[in-house]
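Hi R.,

Here's the chain you asked about this morning:
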Amino acid sequence: MNGKKFVDAIYYELFKKNFLQYKESLQKPVNNDKDSYARARNSLALLSDSQRMDVIDFFKVIIADSASVLLGILDGVHFPDDLEGDFILSMDGEEIQGDLQDLFIEKAQEEGVYD
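And the predicted structure, written out as tokens:
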């Protein structure tokens, strides 16, 4: 149960907070600022509204895939180059890894992230 709680919390943070902040920032009016958000916003302004939303929505896939890789590493099912070994992730003394990646992907699919 703690594994699902962990995944739900991570999912909420990534999609209900971070993604919405990115989306809001990228939809602000174009300006002459030089920070990375302004440069991306100015580039997106060259697209139609529909195309701009397609690109912004694609960030959901990027976020989900990045989180999936990390959760797969913790679960012991994904091994990036030169990183082999066992990780132990626990919550309140209970090991929670093993199906975190599956739980996360399932939740992302249910919420239409990959649509």
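Helices lie at 2-26, 36-44, 49-75, 100-110.

Let me know if you need anything else.
M.
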